[in-house]
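re: that complex we talked abt at group meeting.

here r the seqs, copy pasted straight from the sheet so there may be weird spacing, ignore it
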Amino acid sequence: MNKKPRIKDNNLLLDALIWVIMIFVLVACVVPFLYIIAMSFSSSRAILNNRVSLWPVEFSTEAYRQVFAYPNFFNAYGNTLFYTFFGTLIALCMMLVFAYPLSKTRLKGQGIVMKLVVFSMFFGGGLVPNYLLISSLRMTGTVFAILLPFAINQFNLIILINFIRSIPEELEEAARIDGMNYFGILVRIIVPLSTAALATVGLYTAVFFWNDWFYSLIYLRSTQYPVMLLLRNIVNGTTMVGEAGGVGEKAFIAIAIKSAVIITSTLPIILLYPFLQKYFVKGMLIGAVKG
Amino acid sequence: MKKLVSLLLAILMVLGLAPLALMEEPIAISLYYSDNATLPFRQDWPVIQQLEKQYNVKLNFEPIPMADYGTKAGLALSTGENTPDVMLYLSTGGAYASYALNGAIVPISDYAEWTPHFNARVEEMGLQQDVDLNRLSDGKLYFLPSLYDLPFYDGGLIMREDYLKAKGFEPPKTFDDFYNIMKAYKEDFPDSYPLTSIVGLRVVQRMTMPSFGVSVGRNTGTGTGTLSWNYDTNEYFAGAISDEYKAYITFMAKLHAEGLLDPELEQDNASTAKKLATGAAMAVYGYYDQIGGWEQASEIEGLKLNMYPPLEGPGGAHHQPKSKTGGGLLFPIGVSKRADFEQVVRKLDEVFYSEEAAKLWCFGVEGDSYTMDGDKVVYNDTILGSADGIYKYMQNAYGTGCAGLQNVWYLENELTKYDENYARINADVAAMDNAIQYTVPVPSFDDITAEDASLLQTTLLDAFNVWDDEFRTGKKSIETDWDAFVQDMKDKGIEKFLELYNAHKKL
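got the structure back, here u go
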């Protein structure tokens, strides 16, 4: 008789603890973001005099006006959207057609190909050889230098392979008996049943393309640069050491502008999360456990 | 009759087009440019438009973010792929010397007859020796440096002038004066740390150490980190373990211990601005350009900042050493394969070093940004009335005065873009006894020696930075731990490092 309430109490205590921790995590994540939003809409004077907390002071949209006036800002934004959309689309298509056959353990050579995939996950060619490879393929200065080399990510591929393995083989057998070929099975059975995994992998890939600045820097021309490179230059780009140190040291970019750039460049990808979250969580769980 | 008129008109039209057909196609040149986010590059800057028109050239700039410029340029040079015709704002220091000696960069001194304007400016400014110091171990020059007739005093000690006046302090002349002012401020505002810095400790070190007769640490003096240059004997000495450094670090430790030195020196410029704007600091080692922004940001009534000449210490009154040559035009080897290589070099020489182009890069387009009143440059009303100040406004609106683009700098011309106060400070500094000493040229190491030196440099500098930090913050005692520090630096090879540098010095 006495045990029941104790369990309840324990549950209550545990629940409370979980709530406290989760609220703490939530606050830790949301407060800096709110602070950045508040600063982006405040005057520089108010920010520098420590008068801004979580609400804009001396409301101003000047920072956004200046950000939008940056040469190439909209062009860079357009580039980012392009790389993110088409990069993710190409990546999903390529990973799907790679993952499906690799999910079949009966396939000859599947083990060797898997080992090669895993090997390349841990050992890369290095920056210079990769650059020479992309260059010799005449892809530098073209969008393909970003879209193609990163189309297959080994980690995402393994998630997808494991997910496809978890789909009952009987479904495919039934389809084959009905005369469907492998491509048909992939498109009509595997893809519709893999939305959770595809959403997860798609989100990972989209975030990669959205955040990338380094590969764009080395492979592309300035007119093709994504917004993240512009953001990096604005937020951190004035740091330069060595002979030219003075130029960077003199540079001063208002905190309000930095904040506005951070908001404009991160908001779209943040907004994507809630729509994909349900798939994301499911995909993570299912992909992680071999079925 | 109608047909005759038509024929005549047709002939006239063809004749009218003839000059166009005869005009040479502009030479297209691709350039890497180090783009500063505070001054975003614009291809439509009037200066660039005018240069293209005036010299019949198409300048295809590739603006690369400043922080990543080295990565992009280094990768292009090391692979030899996708290199532009010219890279701006680079010299052959560090890894670039290796690229040059391994054939990735055109030895531009081999084509001296193609750069008559550069040669003329060097002669006119009397900079032949300074330029020659940039030659590598094979005796060749691998880039055309930017040229300065006199070093600028564009940054240094900036302090609250209003506080000095209110308390009856004279402008400081020595580090003792400076200490007394900071001490008074600390007493008035106990929560403050009177001296702060932009970017980090390295700026303070770079700008103050020369007055103590030494220049060591990250990003200072000789670029070696732990060696210094003796300007009397023209040789390196082990600055990090010298008595001069001991005197310097003792002074800094005193500032730290008494709460006069900001303990958070590694900061971005916005944090510095905050501290100055709120009175949490009253002095900073920074740049004159920044004063306006800091003053505008403050809500303290009457806050007025001013820049002061270098303070006198045990080693005299000196600012950070400066070179009369800087990063300039570096030609990747690929451009030499162009059939019109000679024309490209000649064109770039004209665009960056000719007398007319130098005026354009400094003043903008005559009749647009300025007019001449006799010998005097008069800027237009918009420029003169700009809240950003002449210099900054012209940079953004016209593309003048941009480091990396302008390669010929005359102090007198530049001062026309600043207020009288700045000109006065520069005149005061110029009148001092060698306040801005020359920078020591990088020794002519071969590849293997350069690697040995680089390994020693990293080891020594890493250890030095730790000791320096501990001495300054009082974690280690200068009195009791000094010998251990010296021994540690010796164990890490400072004597061998010194020997290497003295054996290969250029002066």
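couple things i noticed - Residues 238-247 of chain A have pLDDT under 50 and may be disordered. Chain A has 15 helices and no strands.
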